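Why should sequence recovery work at all? Because a backbone constrains its sequence more than one might expect. Tight turns favour small or flexible residues, buried strands favour hydrophobic ones, and helices have their own preferences. The token representation captures these environments compactly. In the example below, the structure is given first.
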């Protein structure tokens, strides 16, 4: 059986809806002090139900918190709508988070914004309300929880017929868009051991420009590493299913100047993960080491450089740091205290490493950073000189690199001598020839 209001034409429905809202407000004002509370409440609910039945619009209320924890949809909508502000918006909210490079803009309260999604029109309004202690059932029960003086909420209005689409597609899509936007904005940070800092870590922005495009290394190794990182970060379900901590270990080995530190920076920039540079020479004892590791965040890369040298660091006899102690702690309960952690060890001498580190299953990938190959050189020539095509000097350089042992750092140094490709490549050929002559004469001694 249909109600009278359902049979009305649309313009009439709108009129009835407005009239009902007006009547509701007037009634509430007039009767507030004349009628018993129960009757007043009944009348207000009756009018509200009448107005919602005749309206073709549905309004979602998205509060900033439930009184205990922030509402993730509210936070995501704030981030997402900040990227949707139109040039005609008359007021916007701007702030600068600590340690971030960019200003963050968002919608200001009492402002409206219209968004579209799969042909739907959605109207967002940001409202704020003063909090009364007893206004929220959860807040009034637990006073120590979030009890802000003012709370905010979004009203999201759209046609009732899109209810399922909004709940099942639009809002989940906003959650994932906001995650992407946050990741793009996030400045990667470098944490270094600092006993005066919180959790023994000091922090600065890592503005290392290395990316996978600028790193000179064997293309198949680079591609395998990128694939490994992608499957690691997308592996939440897999790690859960197999009951393993969500972490990954890489051993980077190769001579000095082959790009081990640059590769760590490239990985951090690619994943937008913070880097924790754990210099074991700075760590006094096992309890400090544990405190440092516990202080590392999720989505981070913990780097222990020159692991072959670290274990010779000054050690306290009674509370000695040993490599196996470190590895046991990393593999033990600590590893389940955070998600998406990558542990990187670097060394110039893989042959000198403690076998405990090389044991199968200990480090997931061993990555060899080699002397500069011709394909590595082409990456550097592109980075430093903008050369993308073949060049007449390339044949000589390819031949020389097959015989020479030149690090990418040394080649990069030569490529920086001049910005003129002719001068620079001629100089590089000379450099490689001299180097080869020198090493042959040493060999013949
Ligand atoms: N594979 C590479 N690709 C691009 N640039 C590189 C590479 N290797 C070295 N470089 C250049 O040389 C500089 C020094 O390299 P880097 O410190 O990354 O090498 P490393 O292997 O970590 O050396 P060390 O073992 O001495 O710490 C870098 O800043 C970078 O400019």
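From this structural description, the recovered sequence reads:
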């Amino acid at each position: 059986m249909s109600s009278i209001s359902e049979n009305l034409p649309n313009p009439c429905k709108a009129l009835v809806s407005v009239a009902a809202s007006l009547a509701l407000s007037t009634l509430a004002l007039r009767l507030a002090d004349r009628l018993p509370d129960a009757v007043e409440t009944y009348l207000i609910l009756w009018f509200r139900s009448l107005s919602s039945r005749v309206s073709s619009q549905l309004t979602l209320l998205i509060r900033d918190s439930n009184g205990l924890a922030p509402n993730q949809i509210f936070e995501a909508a704030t981030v997402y709508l900040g990227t949707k502000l139109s040039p005609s918006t008359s007021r916007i909210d701007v702030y600068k988070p600590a340690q971030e490079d960019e200003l963050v803009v968002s919608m200001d309260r009492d402002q409206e914004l219209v968004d579209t999604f799969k042909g739907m029109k959605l109207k967002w309004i940001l409202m704020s309300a003063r909090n009364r202690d007893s206004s929220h059932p959860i807040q009034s029960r637990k006073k120590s929880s979030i009890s802000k003086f003012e709370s905010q909420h979004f009203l999201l209005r759209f046609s009732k017929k899109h209810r399922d689409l909004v709940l099942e597609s639009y809002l989940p899509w906003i959650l994932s868009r906001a995650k992407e936007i946050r990741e793009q904005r996030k400045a990667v940070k470098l944490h270094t051991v600092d006993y005066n800092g919180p959790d023994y870590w000091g922090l600065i922005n890592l503005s290392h420009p290395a990316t996978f495009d600028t790193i000179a290394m064997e293309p198949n190794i680079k591609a395998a590493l990128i694939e490994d990182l992608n499957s690691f970060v997308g592996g939440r379900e897999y790690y859960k299913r197999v009951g393993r901590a969500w972490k990954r270990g890489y051993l980077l080995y190769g001579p000095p100047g082959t790009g081990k530190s640059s590769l760590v920076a490239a990985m951090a920039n690619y994943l937008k993960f913070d880097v924790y540079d754990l210099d074991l020479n700075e760590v006094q004892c096992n309890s400090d080491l544990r405190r440092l590791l516990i202080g590392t965040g999720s989505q981070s890369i913990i780097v222990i450089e020159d692991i072959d040298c670290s274990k010779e660091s000054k050690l306290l006899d009674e509370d000695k740091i040993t490599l196996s102690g470190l590895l046991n702690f990393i593999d033990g309960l600590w590893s389940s205290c955070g998600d998406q952690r990558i542990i990187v060890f670097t060394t110039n001498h893989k042959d000198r490493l403690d076998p405990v580190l090389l044991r199968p299953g200990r480090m997931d990938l061993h990555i060899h950073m080699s002397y500069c190959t011709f394909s590595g050189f082409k990456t550097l020539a592109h980075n430093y000189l903008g050369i993308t095509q073949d060049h007449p000097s390339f044949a000589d350089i390819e031949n020389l690199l097959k015989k020479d042992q030149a690090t990418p750092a040394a080649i990069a140094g030569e490529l920086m001598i001049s910005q003129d490709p002719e001068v620079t490549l001629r100089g590089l050929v000379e450099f490689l020839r001299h180097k080869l002559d020198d090493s042959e004469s040493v060999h013949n001694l």
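A few observations help interpret the result. The first strand starts at residue 57 and ends at 63.
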